[in-house]
Specification:
- By secondary structure, the chain is mainly α.
- It has a domain of 61 residues.
- The chain contains five helices and no strands.
- Helix 3 packs antiparallel against helix 4 and helix 4 packs antiparallel against helix 5.
- The longest helix has 26 residues.
- It is elongated and about 50 Å long.
- The protein starts with a helix and ends with a helix.
- The model has no long low-confidence stretch (mean pLDDT 92).
């Protein structure tokens, strides 16, 4: 496995572990709507990082991974605005997503550069 893929995959797994714990406390009314959307987005992010490793042309899959990360950031922000997450939970989770986004951006840059 590519070093960038394994580091990014581990960060995503750590974020998912935190996220699953956080959404466990959502009220029942949100468990099958917003919580399900967040779970699906996290699962898609994990699947995409695995797909990037297997892909011959990585750029388009990395773009999908980047947009999925942005989508997940929006869902987490929405959950905080709806008071489903505490400010501390939001800050920690958002920090993990920003770090993953930076890793994806660096990976995308290295794949896009002519020297790669």
């Amino acid at each position: 496995m590519d070093y960038k893929a394994s580091k990014t995959q581990q960060k995503i797994l750590d974020m998912m572990e935190y996220g699953y714990q956080a959404i466990r406390n959502f009220p029942k009314s949100e468990r099958f709507s917003l919580a399900q959307d967040i779970r699906s987005c996290m699962n898609r992010e994990l699947r995409l990082v695995i797909d990037v490793e297997k892909a011959y042309i990585k750029k388009s899959t990395l773009r999908d991974l980047d947009s999925t990360n942005a989508e997940l950031q929006a869902y987490v922000r929405l959950a905080c605005n709806m008071k489903l997450l505490s400010m501390h939970q939001y800050e920690v989770w958002s920090g993990k997503l920003v770090e993953i986004g930076k890793m994806i951006g660096g990976w995308l840059h290295s794949v896009s550069s002519p020297n790669a």
